[in-house]
Amino acid sequence: MKSLEELRALKEKTKAEMNLRNEQNGLRVVVGMATCGIAAGARPVMNTFVEEIAKRQLNNVKVTMTGCIGLCKLEPIVEVIDPSGDKVTYVKMDAQKAARVVAEHLVNGKIVSEYTIKAEENS
Amino acid sequence: MPMLRDISLHIHDLAENSVAAGATQIDVMVCAKSDGYLYVEIQDNGCGMSEELLSRVTDPFTTSRTTRKVGMGIPFFKMACEQASGTFQIQSEIEKGTKTCGSFQIRHIDRLPLGNLGETLSMLILEKPEIRYTVTASSEQGTWVFDTDTVRDVLEDTPIQEYEVLQWIKGYVEEHTRNIFGGVLDEIIGRT
Fold first, then answer.
1. How many CA atoms lie within 13 A of A83 on its CB side?
2. Looking at the domain assignment, is residue A9 inside a domain?
3. Does residue A4 lie within any of the structural domains?
4. How many domains does chain A have?
5. What is the rounded average pLDDT of the residues A28-37?
6. Whose CB among A60, A72, B5, B54 lies 3.0–4.6 Å from A26's, allowing a Cys bridge?
7. Is A33–B16 a contact, with Cβ atoms under 8 angstroms apart?
8. Residue B168: exposed, middle, or buried by beta-carbon count in 10 A (0-12, 13-18, 19+)?
9. Rounded to two decimals, what is the model's pTM?
10. A88 lies in which domain range?
């Protein structure tokens, strides 16, 4: 069973890693988390981003949340914003797609175009 | 039409209302009682609601959002309770906060499963780490209390929203709630 002792050990480890952080020049991942997003499955999507980012130790990515942006039927919606403010909007996400966005977009800088809102609009 | 498919998602959605109300503390209680009902309570110290707004919140055409004119969170929760022979109440006082309560008959065929409270907590903390959350889980198998202040005391100057800490919180809450509700709620396998 997990205990507070484990947390104590984790604290030291996390502290060391924090010094490697570089969020100024980083990417921002924004997940829609209003009722519409949650109902459509935004939470496992969000959790996958956190898990994958922790696992891969991506030190330049920050995950945040936002409310409803008025496109409920396309939820779960995820925006990836680069340091210059350019934005890629992914729609109808799930946990598997999120893992792929981490690997291809966040790690390798290659947009997963088939999940974007543009691809959805053209379909 | 997608729905909130488990109780942990409802708790998450209701807590988002508390966050929007500017709460600095949100207390969640999930309690399986010997009368065969599961009781859920979310209490916050946010800005509260006027009596007039309070009387309208269970109407889906009441919402605080500006992108459209419907708000489904509270009506969905009420419906989920009533579908499982339970009841729903909401109390609120301006500047004091809001308390939302619901109950579910545990063995009712339409009762939603509990879902993953660990994920509810870790994602809520990530969204607004400065809020203090407490979770009380209880059943005939015991009572377990989680408090983000206890976690913060251990962490000292390490932020609670660090991803590895969040992963730990998720697992910690998952394990302990499984221990309390395993065998009591059919969907959760008993203690190992």
1. 8
2. no
3. no
4. 1
5. 93
6. A60
7. yes
8. buried
9. 0.91
10. 22-122
Q: What's the confidence (pLDDT) of residue B138?
A: 98
Report DSSP state, residue A72. Answer: G
SS3 B14: helix
Distances (CA, A) of A104 to A32, A85, A107, A122: 21, 19, 6, 22
CA B109 centroid distance within chain: 21
Q: Is residue A86 assigned to a domain?
A: yes
CA torsion sign for B70, B74, B80, B85 is: negative
Query: pLDDT averaged over chain B?
Result: 91
B132-139 and B142-147 strand pairing? antiparallel
Domains and CATH numbers, chain B: 7-181 (3.30.565)
Task: Give the residue, B180 or A13, on which the prediction is more confident.
Answer: B180
Average pLDDT score over residue span B67-96: 88
Most B-contacting residue of A19, A38, A61, A65 (CB-CB within 10 A), to test interface: A38
pLDDT tens digits along B15-71: 999 999 999 999 999 999 999 999 999 999 999 999 988 888 888 777 666 555 556
In a mutational test of the B interface, the residue from A33, A35, A64 whose CB has the highest number of chain B CBs within 10 Å is: A35
* Domain CATH code at residue A104: 3.40.30.10
| Chain A residues with CB within 8 Å of chain B CB | 1-2, 4, 6-8, 10-11, 13-15, 17-18, 33-36, 38-41, 43-44, 46-47, 50-51, 53-54, 63-65, 67-70, 72
B87-98: average pLDDT? 95
Sheet hosting strand B97-105, strand order edge to edge: B88-93, B97-105, B37-44, B25-32, B132-139, B142-147
| Measured distance between the N- and C-terminal CA atoms of chain B, rounded to whole angstroms | 37
